[in-house]
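Slide 14.
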Amino acid sequence: MAIIDQPSVTGSGDTVPRGRGTEPEDRAQTRSAVGEITGWMRGYVRRHPVASLDTVGGQCVLGLRAIQYLFMDIVRLRFPFVEFIRQSAFMASASAMPTVFVAVPIGMTLSIQFALLAGQVGATSMAGAASGLAVIRQGAPMVAALLMASAAGSAICADLGSRKIRDEIDAMEVMGLSVIQRLVVPRLAAAILVGVSLTGVVCFVGFFSGYLFNTFVQGGTPGTFVSTFASFATVGDFYLTMLKAVIFGAIVAIVACHKGLNTRGGPAGVANSVNATVVASIILLMVVNVALTQLYVLLFPRTGF
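Slide 15: predicted structure.
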């Protein structure tokens, strides 16, 4: 049933249809909608790309200054060893057991997949080399870094973020204390040490679990598993893994410290900073891992066994 707008009588005797605005009102609403859309687009550009560049720049500056203070404090014998040991113990206790529990299925899964692939091409003896190299080159540093970003990185960000909203960071700056030297440097050194240690643990646990699974479950030969791995693995692979561990540990510490020191908005801001720390760390770790792997392949190509 059609609804017909009834005319309404104004005070001057003119009639204006009900349910419809006048032409000036329509234009004003259109301009208002266009203004809202334009403002949202400008805000989006300001909030995301520009804010991302600002965040990356701040993290680079913080990392460079932290590394500078680290070497200066070690040379001048002013390095905070007590805080360094405390942070190292905390990060190790928060990340060690989850890392081990993740490394075991990672080693078994790689052993299963490479054994199936080797069986399809008729090279079952190469399963040990493939799974072992996959664990050492890629699995160990990435597993250790991801667990550190999830456990240690989030804890670092929550600690510094809580201090920020309680104005403890501002109080330190007012008293003339360097926040980077007192808070960032010991956490950076601790993250590097724990990252290297966890990477070594994952290398051993992942390779050993793959060895046991291949030997006792898949019916492989122990000697063949070890000998093929020794034929393909080189010292350069171990160096690359340790370099990745150092860089990944530094990335986790710098991202967590930067997000924590820039926390705003009370307890909700701390939660947002922790979430941003984990997400940003994982994305940055993936990108850096691809870059380092490709750079290693280009600089040190394999020419034979």
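Speaker note: Residues 71 and 144 are 25 Å apart (CA to CA).
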